[in-house]
Write a structure and sequence with these properties.
By secondary structure, the protein is of the alpha/beta class. Helices cover 46% and strands 14% of the residues. The protein contains 16 helices and 9 strands.
Length: 384
Amino acid sequence: MLVQPFTLSIPQSQVDDLQRRIKNARLPQVIEGTGWERGVPVAYLKKLATHWSESFDWRKQEAEINTYDQFTTEIDGQTIHFFHVRAEDADAKPILLLHGWPSSSIEYLQVLDLVTNPKAGKAFTVVAPTIPGFGLSSPVTRTGWQSPHTAKAYAELMKRLGYTRYGVHGSDIGADILGELVKIDAEHIIGAHMATDTSTIVYSVTAFMGGGDPSQNPALSDLQKEQVKKIQEDWKEGDGYLKIQSTRPSTFAFGINDSPVGQLAWQVEKYKIWTHPPDELPEQKIDLDQMLTNISLYWFTGSGAASANYIYENYHAVRDWGAAPQHIPQGFAVFNRKTCARPLMDPEHKIPHWSEFKEGQHFPAMEVPELFAGDVQKFFSSLP
Protein backbone atom coordinates (compact mmCIF):
# COMPACT_ATOMS: atom_id res chain seq x y z
CA MET A 1 0.00 0.00 0.00
CA LEU A 2 1.38 3.41 -0.98
CA VAL A 3 2.45 6.11 1.43
CA GLN A 4 0.66 9.28 0.37
CA PRO A 5 1.47 12.94 1.15
CA PHE A 6 -1.11 14.62 3.36
CA THR A 7 -2.12 18.24 3.80
CA LEU A 8 -4.46 19.17 6.62
CA SER A 9 -7.47 21.13 5.37
CA ILE A 10 -10.63 21.23 7.50
CA PRO A 11 -13.65 22.45 5.48
CA GLN A 12 -14.79 25.92 6.47
CA SER A 13 -18.27 24.54 7.10
CA GLN A 14 -16.85 22.43 9.94
CA VAL A 15 -14.98 25.38 11.42
CA ASP A 16 -18.16 27.47 11.29
CA ASP A 17 -20.18 24.65 12.85
CA LEU A 18 -17.66 24.36 15.70
CA GLN A 19 -17.90 28.07 16.47
CA ARG A 20 -21.69 27.97 16.32
CA ARG A 21 -21.91 25.02 18.68
CA ILE A 22 -19.56 26.66 21.18
CA LYS A 23 -21.57 29.88 21.18
CA ASN A 24 -24.85 27.97 21.64
CA ALA A 25 -23.57 25.68 24.39
CA ARG A 26 -25.86 25.14 27.36
CA LEU A 27 -23.64 25.38 30.41
CA PRO A 28 -24.42 23.67 33.73
CA GLN A 29 -25.58 25.46 36.84
CA VAL A 30 -22.87 27.01 38.98
CA ILE A 31 -22.53 25.40 42.41
CA GLU A 32 -21.45 28.20 44.71
CA GLY A 33 -18.30 27.70 46.74
CA THR A 34 -16.89 24.92 44.54
CA GLY A 35 -13.82 24.75 42.36
CA TRP A 36 -11.53 22.30 40.56
CA GLU A 37 -12.10 19.63 43.20
CA ARG A 38 -15.36 18.78 41.39
CA GLY A 39 -13.98 19.14 37.88
CA VAL A 40 -13.77 22.11 35.55
CA PRO A 41 -15.41 25.25 37.01
CA VAL A 42 -18.14 26.80 34.87
CA ALA A 43 -16.66 30.30 34.86
CA TYR A 44 -13.26 29.05 33.73
CA LEU A 45 -14.65 26.88 30.95
CA LYS A 46 -16.95 29.65 29.73
CA LYS A 47 -13.97 31.99 29.39
CA LEU A 48 -11.86 29.32 27.65
CA ALA A 49 -14.69 28.35 25.29
CA THR A 50 -15.21 32.01 24.35
CA HIS A 51 -11.52 32.29 23.51
CA TRP A 52 -11.77 29.10 21.45
CA SER A 53 -14.68 30.40 19.35
CA GLU A 54 -13.71 34.07 19.04
CA SER A 55 -9.91 34.42 19.30
CA PHE A 56 -8.35 31.08 18.44
CA ASP A 57 -7.20 31.08 14.80
CA TRP A 58 -7.66 27.57 13.42
CA ARG A 59 -6.31 28.46 9.98
CA LYS A 60 -3.09 29.80 11.49
CA GLN A 61 -2.56 26.56 13.40
CA GLU A 62 -3.48 24.47 10.37
CA ALA A 63 -0.89 26.34 8.30
CA GLU A 64 1.77 25.74 10.95
CA ILE A 65 1.01 22.02 11.02
CA ASN A 66 1.32 21.92 7.23
CA THR A 67 4.88 23.28 7.38
CA TYR A 68 5.89 19.78 8.46
CA ASP A 69 5.86 16.81 6.09
CA GLN A 70 2.83 14.62 6.73
CA PHE A 71 1.68 11.39 5.17
CA THR A 72 -0.99 8.72 5.42
CA THR A 73 -0.92 5.03 4.68
CA GLU A 74 -3.43 2.24 5.09
CA ILE A 75 -2.47 -0.68 7.30
CA ASP A 76 -4.90 -3.51 7.99
CA GLY A 77 -7.80 -1.42 6.68
CA GLN A 78 -7.00 1.58 8.90
CA THR A 79 -5.69 4.95 7.75
CA ILE A 80 -2.59 5.92 9.72
CA HIS A 81 -1.51 9.57 9.74
CA PHE A 82 2.07 10.48 10.59
CA PHE A 83 4.60 13.28 10.53
CA HIS A 84 7.84 12.33 8.79
CA VAL A 85 10.41 15.08 9.36
CA ARG A 86 13.84 14.29 8.02
CA ALA A 87 17.08 15.64 9.39
CA GLU A 88 19.45 17.25 6.90
CA ASP A 89 22.06 14.60 7.67
CA ALA A 90 21.29 11.68 5.38
CA ASP A 91 22.79 9.29 7.95
CA ALA A 92 20.59 10.53 10.82
CA LYS A 93 18.92 7.75 12.78
CA PRO A 94 15.13 7.64 12.69
CA ILE A 95 13.15 7.90 15.94
CA LEU A 96 9.53 6.88 16.29
CA LEU A 97 7.68 9.25 18.69
CA LEU A 98 4.54 7.73 20.22
CA HIS A 99 1.99 9.91 22.01
CA GLY A 100 -0.63 9.17 24.66
CA TRP A 101 -4.14 10.29 25.72
CA PRO A 102 -5.79 12.79 25.49
CA SER A 103 -3.33 13.69 22.82
CA SER A 104 -2.20 13.09 19.27
CA SER A 105 0.99 13.60 17.29
CA ILE A 106 0.28 17.34 17.72
CA GLU A 107 1.83 16.81 21.17
CA TYR A 108 5.26 16.75 19.50
CA LEU A 109 4.98 19.88 17.35
CA GLN A 110 7.34 21.91 19.53
CA VAL A 111 10.05 19.24 19.53
CA LEU A 112 10.16 18.32 15.84
CA ASP A 113 12.68 21.05 15.01
CA LEU A 114 14.57 20.53 18.28
CA VAL A 115 15.21 16.87 17.42
CA THR A 116 15.69 17.10 13.65
CA ASN A 117 17.69 20.34 13.66
CA PRO A 118 19.29 20.81 17.11
CA LYS A 119 21.58 23.70 17.93
CA ALA A 120 24.24 21.21 19.00
CA GLY A 121 24.81 17.48 18.91
CA LYS A 122 23.32 14.79 16.73
CA ALA A 123 20.20 15.29 14.67
CA PHE A 124 17.55 12.60 14.23
CA THR A 125 14.82 12.00 11.70
CA VAL A 126 11.38 11.84 13.32
CA VAL A 127 8.38 9.65 12.49
CA ALA A 128 5.42 10.66 14.67
CA PRO A 129 2.29 8.62 13.92
CA THR A 130 -1.14 9.25 15.34
CA ILE A 131 -2.71 6.30 17.19
CA PRO A 132 -5.79 4.95 15.37
CA GLY A 133 -8.80 6.73 16.85
CA PHE A 134 -6.79 9.78 17.91
CA GLY A 135 -6.77 12.93 15.81
CA LEU A 136 -5.93 12.47 12.15
CA SER A 137 -5.90 8.66 12.28
CA SER A 138 -9.65 8.65 12.87
CA PRO A 139 -12.20 7.29 12.35
CA VAL A 140 -11.94 3.68 13.51
CA THR A 141 -14.88 1.49 12.58
CA ARG A 142 -13.60 -1.95 13.63
CA THR A 143 -12.86 -3.57 16.96
CA GLY A 144 -9.41 -4.87 17.78
CA TRP A 145 -7.34 -1.71 17.62
CA GLN A 146 -5.34 -1.67 20.85
CA SER A 147 -1.67 -1.49 21.78
CA PRO A 148 -0.50 -4.90 20.47
CA HIS A 149 -2.31 -4.36 17.14
CA THR A 150 -1.01 -0.80 16.88
CA ALA A 151 2.54 -1.99 17.53
CA LYS A 152 2.27 -4.37 14.57
CA ALA A 153 1.00 -1.52 12.43
CA TYR A 154 3.92 0.70 13.42
CA ALA A 155 6.43 -2.04 12.69
CA GLU A 156 4.89 -2.28 9.24
CA LEU A 157 4.97 1.51 8.90
CA MET A 158 8.71 1.68 9.58
CA LYS A 159 9.26 -1.16 7.14
CA ARG A 160 7.35 0.72 4.45
CA LEU A 161 9.46 3.78 5.06
CA GLY A 162 12.59 1.67 4.52
CA TYR A 163 13.97 1.89 8.06
CA THR A 164 15.77 -1.28 9.12
CA ARG A 165 17.11 0.25 12.36
CA TYR A 166 15.24 2.81 14.43
CA GLY A 167 14.70 4.10 17.95
CA VAL A 168 11.38 4.40 19.75
CA HIS A 169 10.12 6.88 22.31
CA GLY A 170 6.74 6.61 24.06
CA SER A 171 4.75 8.14 26.88
CA ASP A 172 1.40 7.12 28.40
CA ILE A 173 -0.35 4.83 25.86
CA GLY A 174 2.63 5.40 23.60
CA ALA A 175 4.84 3.72 26.19
CA ASP A 176 2.44 0.77 26.22
CA ILE A 177 2.68 0.51 22.44
CA LEU A 178 6.47 0.77 22.74
CA GLY A 179 6.44 -2.18 25.14
CA GLU A 180 4.59 -4.28 22.58
CA LEU A 181 6.74 -3.08 19.69
CA VAL A 182 10.03 -4.16 21.23
CA LYS A 183 8.63 -7.68 21.61
CA ILE A 184 7.73 -8.08 17.96
CA ASP A 185 10.36 -5.97 16.18
CA ALA A 186 13.37 -6.20 18.47
CA GLU A 187 15.79 -6.96 15.64
CA HIS A 188 15.17 -3.51 14.15
CA ILE A 189 15.03 -1.38 17.32
CA ILE A 190 18.20 0.31 18.55
CA GLY A 191 16.77 1.64 21.82
CA ALA A 192 13.58 2.35 23.78
CA HIS A 193 13.07 5.67 25.59
CA MET A 194 10.10 6.47 27.82
CA ALA A 195 8.90 9.70 29.38
CA THR A 196 6.84 9.34 32.53
CA ASP A 197 6.05 10.95 35.87
CA THR A 198 5.98 9.67 39.42
CA SER A 199 2.20 9.40 39.52
CA THR A 200 2.18 7.19 36.43
CA ILE A 201 4.95 5.04 37.91
CA VAL A 202 2.91 4.47 41.07
CA TYR A 203 -0.15 3.58 39.01
CA SER A 204 1.80 1.23 36.73
CA VAL A 205 3.51 -0.58 39.62
CA THR A 206 0.14 -1.02 41.34
CA ALA A 207 -1.88 -2.09 38.32
CA PHE A 208 0.51 -4.03 36.11
CA MET A 209 3.71 -5.08 37.87
CA GLY A 210 2.31 -7.32 40.58
CA GLY A 211 4.19 -5.61 43.36
CA GLY A 212 1.27 -5.26 45.76
CA ASP A 213 0.67 -1.96 47.52
CA PRO A 214 3.74 0.19 46.74
CA SER A 215 3.10 2.35 49.82
CA GLN A 216 4.07 -0.70 51.91
CA ASN A 217 7.25 -1.41 49.98
CA PRO A 218 9.93 -2.01 52.67
CA ALA A 219 12.61 -0.56 50.40
CA LEU A 220 11.01 2.88 50.66
CA SER A 221 11.73 5.40 53.37
CA ASP A 222 8.89 6.81 55.46
CA LEU A 223 8.94 9.97 53.36
CA GLN A 224 8.76 7.97 50.14
CA LYS A 225 5.85 5.91 51.47
CA GLU A 226 4.00 9.15 52.21
CA GLN A 227 4.67 10.30 48.66
CA VAL A 228 3.10 7.12 47.33
CA LYS A 229 0.08 7.40 49.64
CA LYS A 230 -0.56 10.97 48.48
CA ILE A 231 -0.43 9.87 44.84
CA GLN A 232 -2.80 6.97 45.58
CA GLU A 233 -5.30 9.35 47.18
CA ASP A 234 -5.10 11.63 44.16
CA TRP A 235 -5.78 8.67 41.88
CA LYS A 236 -8.93 7.80 43.83
CA GLU A 237 -10.25 11.29 43.10
CA GLY A 238 -9.04 11.42 39.52
CA ASP A 239 -9.50 8.06 37.81
CA GLY A 240 -13.21 8.37 37.01
CA TYR A 241 -12.40 9.16 33.38
CA LEU A 242 -10.58 5.84 33.07
CA LYS A 243 -13.41 3.80 34.56
CA ILE A 244 -15.93 5.39 32.20
CA GLN A 245 -13.84 5.02 29.04
CA SER A 246 -12.71 1.49 29.81
CA THR A 247 -16.22 0.22 30.57
CA ARG A 248 -18.93 2.27 28.78
CA PRO A 249 -17.30 4.28 25.98
CA SER A 250 -20.32 4.07 23.66
CA THR A 251 -22.71 5.65 26.16
CA PHE A 252 -20.27 8.40 27.03
CA ALA A 253 -19.55 9.01 23.33
CA PHE A 254 -22.95 10.53 22.53
CA GLY A 255 -22.33 13.58 24.70
CA ILE A 256 -18.69 14.19 23.83
CA ASN A 257 -19.29 13.67 20.10
CA ASP A 258 -22.16 16.19 20.05
CA SER A 259 -20.78 18.97 22.25
CA PRO A 260 -17.41 20.64 21.62
CA VAL A 261 -17.65 22.31 25.02
CA GLY A 262 -18.09 18.86 26.54
CA GLN A 263 -15.01 17.72 24.63
CA LEU A 264 -13.13 20.80 25.85
CA ALA A 265 -14.01 20.16 29.49
CA TRP A 266 -13.12 16.47 29.27
CA GLN A 267 -9.62 17.21 28.00
CA VAL A 268 -8.75 20.47 29.71
CA GLU A 269 -9.25 18.91 33.14
CA LYS A 270 -6.38 16.54 32.35
CA TYR A 271 -4.19 19.39 31.18
CA LYS A 272 -4.90 21.01 34.55
CA ILE A 273 -4.15 18.09 36.87
CA TRP A 274 -1.56 16.24 34.77
CA THR A 275 0.78 19.19 34.31
CA HIS A 276 3.09 20.74 36.87
CA PRO A 277 2.52 22.63 39.09
CA PRO A 278 -1.11 21.52 39.65
CA ASP A 279 -2.27 24.79 41.21
CA GLU A 280 -1.78 26.72 37.98
CA LEU A 281 -4.17 26.88 35.02
CA PRO A 282 -3.35 24.80 31.92
CA GLU A 283 -2.48 27.81 29.76
CA GLN A 284 0.12 28.86 32.33
CA LYS A 285 2.03 25.63 31.78
CA ILE A 286 1.54 24.72 28.13
CA ASP A 287 0.96 26.68 24.95
CA LEU A 288 -2.75 27.52 24.74
CA ASP A 289 -2.86 27.40 20.94
CA GLN A 290 -1.23 23.96 20.89
CA MET A 291 -3.71 22.66 23.47
CA LEU A 292 -6.70 24.04 21.55
CA THR A 293 -5.30 22.73 18.27
CA ASN A 294 -5.21 19.21 19.70
CA ILE A 295 -8.72 19.58 21.14
CA SER A 296 -9.99 21.00 17.84
CA LEU A 297 -8.63 17.99 15.97
CA TYR A 298 -10.36 15.71 18.46
CA TRP A 299 -13.59 17.55 17.65
CA PHE A 300 -13.21 17.60 13.86
CA THR A 301 -12.34 13.88 13.71
CA GLY A 302 -14.66 12.55 16.43
CA SER A 303 -11.64 11.40 18.44
CA GLY A 304 -13.29 11.91 21.81
CA ALA A 305 -15.47 8.89 21.15
CA ALA A 306 -12.88 6.99 19.10
CA SER A 307 -10.06 7.34 21.64
CA ALA A 308 -12.41 6.23 24.42
CA ASN A 309 -13.11 3.08 22.46
CA TYR A 310 -9.37 2.54 22.04
CA ILE A 311 -8.99 2.64 25.83
CA TYR A 312 -11.85 0.14 26.14
CA GLU A 313 -10.11 -2.15 23.64
CA ASN A 314 -6.86 -1.91 25.59
CA TYR A 315 -8.50 -2.86 28.86
CA HIS A 316 -10.26 -5.85 27.31
CA ALA A 317 -7.45 -7.13 25.10
CA VAL A 318 -5.81 -10.49 25.68
CA ARG A 319 -2.23 -9.50 26.37
CA ASP A 320 1.11 -11.25 26.58
CA TRP A 321 2.70 -9.55 29.60
CA GLY A 322 6.06 -11.21 29.05
CA ALA A 323 9.21 -9.20 29.57
CA ALA A 324 10.71 -7.14 26.77
CA PRO A 325 13.98 -8.31 25.21
CA GLN A 326 16.81 -7.44 27.58
CA HIS A 327 19.35 -6.53 24.92
CA ILE A 328 17.51 -3.38 23.81
CA PRO A 329 18.93 -0.32 25.63
CA GLN A 330 16.36 1.46 27.79
CA GLY A 331 16.07 5.06 28.83
CA PHE A 332 13.68 6.70 31.31
CA ALA A 333 12.99 10.40 31.74
CA VAL A 334 10.92 11.10 34.87
CA PHE A 335 9.27 14.51 35.09
CA ASN A 336 7.90 16.14 38.26
CA ARG A 337 10.22 13.76 40.03
CA LYS A 338 9.66 12.36 43.51
CA THR A 339 12.32 10.38 45.37
CA CYS A 340 10.11 7.27 45.38
CA ALA A 341 10.14 6.99 41.57
CA ARG A 342 13.31 5.02 40.96
CA PRO A 343 13.05 2.70 43.99
CA LEU A 344 9.65 1.63 42.63
CA MET A 345 10.47 1.34 38.93
CA ASP A 346 14.18 0.50 38.96
CA PRO A 347 15.26 -0.49 42.49
CA GLU A 348 18.42 -2.26 41.29
CA HIS A 349 19.41 0.57 38.92
CA LYS A 350 19.43 -1.72 35.90
CA ILE A 351 18.11 0.96 33.54
CA PRO A 352 21.29 2.56 32.16
CA HIS A 353 19.78 5.92 31.18
CA TRP A 354 17.68 7.38 34.01
CA SER A 355 16.95 11.12 34.05
CA GLU A 356 14.88 13.05 36.58
CA PHE A 357 13.48 16.56 36.18
CA LYS A 358 11.69 18.76 38.68
CA GLU A 359 9.76 20.46 35.87
CA GLY A 360 7.00 19.08 33.67
CA GLN A 361 4.79 16.10 34.27
CA HIS A 362 2.53 14.06 31.97
CA PHE A 363 2.98 16.16 28.80
CA PRO A 364 6.71 17.03 28.84
CA ALA A 365 6.91 17.57 25.07
CA MET A 366 4.36 20.37 25.54
CA GLU A 367 5.37 21.60 29.02
CA VAL A 368 9.17 21.57 28.77
CA PRO A 369 9.99 20.80 25.13
CA GLU A 370 13.68 21.72 25.41
CA LEU A 371 14.25 19.39 28.38
CA PHE A 372 12.29 16.63 26.68
CA ALA A 373 14.06 16.92 23.34
CA GLY A 374 17.43 17.16 25.07
CA ASP A 375 16.91 13.90 26.93
CA VAL A 376 15.73 12.10 23.80
CA GLN A 377 18.76 13.38 21.94
CA LYS A 378 21.14 12.44 24.78
CA PHE A 379 19.82 8.89 25.03
CA PHE A 380 19.80 8.03 21.34
CA SER A 381 23.14 9.78 20.76
CA SER A 382 24.72 7.33 23.18
CA LEU A 383 23.68 4.31 21.10
CA PRO A 384 25.72 2.77 18.28
